[in-house]
Amino acid sequence: MSKMQNLYLGQAGHLLVMSELLYRGWNVAIPQVDRGDDIFVVKDANGDLKRVQVKTAEGKKRLKGYSAKYNLRMDQLQTPFTPDVHYVFVMRKDDGWNKFIVIDRSVLFNHRIIDKVGYEKDGTLQLQISIHDNTSKCSKVDFSKYLNDWSKFPVINH
To answer: What is the largest CA-CA distance in the chain?
Structure first.
């Protein structure tokens, strides 16, 4: 995939996540200066603010399901924020979008330290995530519980 096509794919994933959050009743905003947060998400009723980092990749067909590679900045993964960052991994497959992987920064960081998910190179962590039906893995670690786990972004009825 060309660098230009990758930019279009990334923006499509970004807008897809924004759309899902809006559908769930959260207000979304794009920071004017990108310093690691792709989306600010706000619960209008009380000002509850959340940070979201979207990672989008093209899925590759496997014997069972699809897998995709994602690159994350290690400094962002290692640094706690207030409010903390939530990662949303988006995978485009042949016929549309796959399920989302929604995971808190601290949980992903713990998987990196304890389970050794991914590998580091030049300040970047590369993760390979696979999805098949209702299961997901990252470096042989079960990520199924993060499939479409929008529990930190419950539906808000206005």
So the answer is: 46
Residue pair 9/56 in contact by the 8 Å Cβ criterion: yes
CA dihedral 154, 98, 3, 19 (to 10 degrees): -30
Every domain of the chain and the residues it spans: 3-146
- Which residue, 129, 147, 144, 142, is CA-closest to 59? 129
What confidence tens digit (pLDDT) does each residue in 99-129 have? 999 999 999 999 999 999 999 999 999 999 9
Alpha-carbon span 139 to 120, nearest angstrom: 13
pTM of the model: 0.95
Cα–Cα distance for residue pair 109/83, rounded to 1 Å? 16
CA torsion 104-85-100-23 (nearest 10°) is 120
Query: What token pair was written down for 53?
Result: 């980092």
CATH 1.10.540.10 fits 3-146, yes or no: no
